[in-house]
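User: quick one - fold this with glycinamide ribonucleotide bound?
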Amino acid sequence: MKKFSGKKISTAVFISGRGTNLQSLINFSQKEKSPIKIELVFSNDKNASGLKRAKIKKINTYYQISKKNNILENELIKRLNRRKIKLICLAGFMKILSKNFIKRFKGKIINIHPSLLPEYKGLDTHRRVLENKEIYTGCTVHHVNSKLDSGKIILQKKIKVLKNDNVKSLAKRVLLEEHKIYPKAIIKMYS
Ligand code: GAR
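Assistant: Sure. Structure tokens for the protein plus glycinamide ribonucleotide:
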């Protein structure tokens, strides 16, 4: 990955829902030491509340109508090219991108996942962690390749599962760590 040379990297964030990770990236991008500038927020759902977070900060948004439909990637690629996007951060983005899309942006797509990958790929991680009585869980920022949640790991944060944790309490504690490691992972990539 290219080193940060002072000119901020044109970045897009892809979301599907509430966008708390998007918010942490927006806050981070506004700091002087941040190597990124968020130029576009894309949602595969018109009703994703995270879109409002971008609008408040006057960041360009683009959505496609329904989270159930396939993404119209050609249209999306046009918009990413128009803004010369060099980094795509998936932040709670619940669609699988095509091999073609991933190839087109090779090495430029990263994701945050709420588990200690390679453990607990896919959905419903916290429930499965609790069912398996794991002692630790956490979150991971990783590069995206064509296999689900399998690209090279950039940064992880491990936390303890507490005795009386339920899915909600665990998700909440992991999320707080997600908000911290996503910016840290980006700094790591460009330093
Ligand atoms: C986050 O916990 C993120 O790690 C997870 O969705 C949540 C989105 O929250 N992503 C995945 O599970 C991707 N496989 P947010 O919309 O508040 O950032």
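One thing worth noting: The pocket of glycinamide ribonucleotide is lined by residues 15, 17-21, 50, 91-92, 112-114, 175, 178 (CB under 6 Å).
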